[in-house]
Write a structure and sequence with these properties.
The complex is a heterodimer of chains A (426) and B (308). With 426 residues, chain A is mainly alpha-helical. Chain A has helices spanning 19-22, 92-111, 119-129, 141-176, 188-203, 211-233, 240-264, 269-277, 284-303, 305-311, 315-320, 325-347, 353-365, 369-393, 402-425. Classes of the chains: A mainly alpha (426), B alpha/beta (308).
Chain lengths: 426, 308
């Protein structure tokens, strides 16, 4: 009988980690039957049911079941087993519902705006833009230009940025196993703020179009790399706690330098402040800037949903299950930071999206990262499109900064979801 | 009984001393403004300020005040100006900051009069404690206030004649400009403060200058909570299609008709197509010194070109 093997370093084709895979065979070296059901320390009430079943030699006999709270593992070895209360896979229904919400909010964003354009004309114009459809919408050239060059890219940019921030937030929460993690934890916001302030103060002129996105992106990536370097240099044993502390230190330092730079040229204060408050009105140029980075980071993150589920069990257990925890964390962090940097480069420092949306998704759809990551992507997009809609209509024709709206809208919504789902659970 | 007696004696002593002190300082300062003589009392934003003698070491922390001081003939009396005072060219610009005043740096110059536009960090009270007269001349909301400030500066520096002359010339020029411009042109305009875009409503001083020419500000449609300097929606400006566009971000942000045309949705603005984009100097459009009449002249010329 092959001995019970404790997994060491290094990647290896891991044992199948989902009920569905259990039936489909596994590397012949798999020899433990692990049934792990845990409350993965997110916060009370959020349970992560992970079913990790490896094809076992029938009498390997190691059945580990760590239960807290109301999760009861039934201890049956083999495939399938107790499903738990929450699904571990993204059901098509949930995905469709999320997409539906996103499309509805994008449509609302296109129909309404500070300019007085009849919604029916907008609908007709949208139809006209579909290939093979030709409809006369009766819009004046200025209104057509407004729709095509201002509103459409604005709604798209809001969706992309919202999705990026939400999925990055979910990724950070998965890596740090901490419900308070948000995309700006490791100094992305502080770094971007510093380089943008430096660009405005030292270069000046018309930096808004290309200079600021490049500066902000570099700053965000630089901030995260600095935090990572500092955290790694602090020693291997620290793990994520050291990384968080390094992030706090880097954020404080970079923010201090930014404040100093702001004082150097006080007349540019308004410009810097405007950028910090966030704005998704950059137009098609910003959309094309962000899309490549968005695609890369989102694809990488979506592939790591399963691995994040395993990681949430705990470092030692994850290692036992054949996972190189450090490498998974690094890859997810890099992808999430890339997403954050891209979002921040084109839209400023919009807060609240990255921390609230993943939590809401967990409450509504389930806490497995295979669900949370894609649904946060879609949910975050819808959230920011709606927030931008409110920002540009509530004081029309004046606008509110979008960061103000996300905070105002996000907080009560989060409380409402908390109460509704808590009632459902008890 | 001895402690009580000594206490009473002490109280009597203190009372007499205080009475004596108040006696010597009870003579009121002459309240009549006098262009020939000092001391003079000037009514500034921080109340009545007594200037004991003709100041020869003036520190100006307000770019508008610097311009006014030089225009009324008090230039030779100005020792140092703040880092934003770049007009006129002979203004003694220094590293002093009007936004973050450093008390020691100001006092190091041993000023006998300080002019500020904002009371930041309690600078007015602090200077008062050290006995330096300080005039608070904040941003104005009407032309009359602007003329008043010039008159105050004249009285405080012993250049009342120069100040009266300047104010008179300004009034005359403004009357000429507003008379020459057609008032019934019914033009709409958009004034841009920066590229966000931030604009101004008619409630502000700037808005009032435009109002002299009978123009309608598209930013007036913004609701009151947005304030006097609302952040406008780009698509609203595109749809409102103002007849005239005034850019006040030409120096800071290099904006011009070309950059406007490149903004999404704004290339079809009639102001861009018909070359009705007026480039203003950022500083002239944000100060309330003598050059505010230059601003009015530029606006008047633009209105005449379009309407006349």
């Amino acid at each position: 009988m092959p001995p019970h093997r404790l997994e060491g370093r290094g990647p290896r084709p891991g044992p199948p980690v989902s009920p569905g895979d259990a039936a489909s065979g596994s590397p012949p070296s798999a020899d433990t039957d692990l049934r792990v059901t845990t409350n993965a320390g997110m916060d009370p009430g959020i349970g992560t049911d992970i079913e990790t079943t490896t094809n076992a030699a029938p009498d390997a006999g190691t059945s580990v079941s760590t239960d807290t709270g109301a999760n009861v593992g039934t201890g049956t070895a083999g495939k399938g087993g107790a499903r738990g209360r929450q699904a571990a896979r993204l059901s098509p229904l949930v995905a469709l519902a999320a997409m539906g919400v996103l499309l509805a909010s994008m449509l609302a964003g296109l129909l309404v705006g500070a300019a007085d354009i009849a919604p029916t004309s907008v609908m007709l114009q949208l139809l006209d833009w579909l290939p093979f459809v030709s409809v006369d919408s009766g819009l004046a050239p200025i209104e057509l230009g407004l729709l095509a060059e201002l509103r459409l890219p604005r709604v798209l940019l809001a969706a992309i940025v919202g999705g990026l921030l939400a999925i990055a937030g979910a990724g950070y929460q998965g890596v740090f196993r901490n419900p308070l993690a948000d995309p700006y934890l490791l100094g992305a916001a502080a770094g971007a703020g510093l380089t943008t302030t430096a660009a405005i103060v030292f270069i000046g002129g018309d930096v808004e179009s290309i200079g600021i996105p490049a500066a902000a992106f570099t700053g965000a990536v630089g901030g995260v790399l600095l935090a990572y370097a500092l955290g790694s240099a602090a020693g291997r044993g620290g793990g994520t706690a050291t990384l968080v502390l390094a992030g706090v230190a880097v954020t404080s330092f970079l923010t201090a330098v930014q404040t100093f730079l702001q004082q150097l040229k006080v007349e540019e204060l308004q410009r810097v402040y405007s950028w910090i408050l966030g704005d998704v009105g950059g137009g098609w140029s910003q959309v094309t800037l962000v899309v490549p980075y968005a695609v890369v980071s989102v694809v990488v993150m979506l592939f790591h949903g399963r691995l994040l589920d395993v990681l949430s069990v705990g470092d030692d257990e994850a290692v036992t299950l054949g996972l190189n925890a450090a490498r998974v964390r690094l890859v997810v962090l890099l992808a999430a930071s890339l997403a954050t940097a891209a979002a921040v480069a084109v839209s400023g420092l919009i807060g609240f999206v990255g921390i609230v949306v993943p939590h809401v998704v967990r409450r509504l759809a389930g806490s497995s990262y295979r669900i949370v990551l894609p649904v946060s992507l879609i949910g975050g997009a819808a959230f920011l499109v709606l927030a931008d809609l409110i920002a540009r209509t509530v004081l029309a024709p004046a606008e509110l900064p979008i960061g103000v709206v996300t905070a105002f809208v996000g907080a009560p919504f989060f409380v409402a979801v908390l109460r509704v789902t808590r009632r459902a659970e008890t | 009984m001895r402690p009580v007696r000594s206490a009473l004696a002490g109280a009597l002593f203190v009372a007499l001393t205080l009475a004596g002190c108040s006696q010597s300082s009870s003579a009121p300062p002459p309240a009549v403004d006098s262009s020939a003589g000092f001391p003079v009392t000037v009514e500034a934003g921080n109340g009545p300020v007594v200037v004991p003698k003709r100041p020869e070491r003036i520190v100006s922390l307000s770019p508008s005040a610097t311009e006014s001081l030089f225009a009324i003939g008090a230039g030779p009396q100005v020792l140092a100006a703040d880092d934003q005072s770049d007009y006129p060219a002979e203004a003694p610009t220094s590293e002093l900051s009007g936004f973050k005043p450093n008390m020691e740096a100001i006092l190091n110059r041993k000023p006998d009069l300080v002019v500020v536009a904002n009371d930041i960090d309690n600078v007015v009270a602090e200077l008062g404690k050290v006995g330096v007269p300080v005039l608070l001349e904040p941003a104005v909301t009407t032309f009359d206030e602007a003329y008043d400030q010039i008159t105050d500066l004249g009285a405080a520096t012993g250049n009342s004649d120069g100040a009266a002359g300047l104010a008179g010339r300004m009034r005359k020029r403004l009357d000429e400009i507003t008379a020459a411009a057609p008032k019934d042109a019914k033009l709409t305009y958009y004034h841009e403060l920066d590229t966000t875009p931030y604009s101004v409503t008619s409630d502000t001083f700037l808005g009032q200058i435009y109002g002299l020419f009978g123009m309608t500000n598209i930013a007036d449609e913004a609701p009151d909570p947005a304030g006097g300097y609302p952040k406008l929606s780009a698509e609203f400006v595109a749809q409102a299609d103002p007849d005239l566009v005034f850019l006040a971000d030409t120096k800071c942000c290099a904006q011009s008709r070309d950059t406007l045309a490149k903004r999404p949705g704004w290339s079809k603005l009639s102001a861009v197509k018909n070359d009705r984009v007026i480039l203003l100097d950022d500083d002239i459009a944000s100060r309330w010194g003598p050059r505010v009449i230059d601003l009015a002249e530029q606006i008047g010329d633009a209105v005449q070109k379009v309407a006349g």
